[in-house]
Write a structure and sequence with these properties.
The chain contains nine helices and no strands. The two termini are 27 Å apart. By secondary structure, it is mainly alpha-helical. α2 crosses α3, α4 packs across α9 and α6 packs parallel to α9.
């Protein structure tokens, strides 16, 4: 059996061979320690360092590079799947009730605002609120990971897939998008379509927030030492 000090030295060995991510280091250290023990059982004359060199040689000329790349691809694929799952959860029971109520409320407001100028102004205000909401929640999510001391592939996914709601202001109020020339010319149909777009952006932000919170819980559970 290898000692605790030898096991810890495997982390330094991984860093020396360009593995900067702590979660990958943990997996490699576990794999290396098992393989080293097997080598030393087969040949008791081998030292820890000799067994380590033999095990590492088995990874080929690229070393740990393929393992890191595979891990990154796997985490990215899993994260995309989870984000879509959380997004579509707002269109299933019971969350769909909230989704439909929000859209119905926006349509009702559009009907109440008979002047087209007020419709455009209302949607502009909603878009601005979404932009502020995104900034606030992004800062909160950043604070959530402030205690993370070690870089991990797992938590790097928290930065991907962020919806920049401010782009909405440029796209959906472009003169060319619906063919009207001024903000005060907002018929009900364009209003309804833009309202739907805003709702989808909002749900995307909520889904991403849910994903980051879930990611934080999993990261602390699986790799507590990364937050120590």
């Amino acid at each position: 059996m290898i000692t605790e000090a030898q096991y810890e030295s495997l982390f330094a060995f991984c860093r020396k061979h360009y593995v900067q991510y702590y979660d990958v280091q943990v997996e490699l250290a576990d794999h290396l320690s098992e393989a080293i023990e097997e080598k030393m059982k087969e040949n008791p004359k081998l030292s820890f360092e000799q067994a380590l060199d033999e095990v590492y040689a088995g990874f080929g000329i690229k070393g740990f590079a393929d393992i890191v790349a595979t891990r990154m691809e796997m985490v990215s694929k899993k994260s995309r799947k989870q984000k879509w799952k959380l997004f579509f959860s707002y269109f299933t029971v019971p969350k769909i009730a909230m989704t439909l109520c929000m859209y119905a409320a926006m349509l009702l407001i559009g009907k109440v605002l008979t002047q087209e100028y007020h419709r455009g102004l209302f949607l502009f205000a909603v878009g601005a609120c979404l932009f502020v909401f995104e900034i606030v929640y992004t800062l909160k999510m950043h604070k959530l990971f402030k205690q993370q001391k070690k870089e991990m592939i797992l938590t790097s996914e928290r930065l991907s897939g962020i919806i920049h709601s401010g782009i909405f202001i440029q796209i959906f109020f472009s003169n060319r998008f619906f063919g009207y020339t001024e903000l005060d010319q907002m018929p009900f149909l364009p209003y309804a379509i833009i309202s739907l777009m805003l709702l989808l952006i909002f749900i995307s932000l909520l889904a991403h927030r849910d994903f980051v919170k879930e990611l934080h819980r999993n990261a602390i559970t699986l790799y507590p030492k990364a937050f120590a």
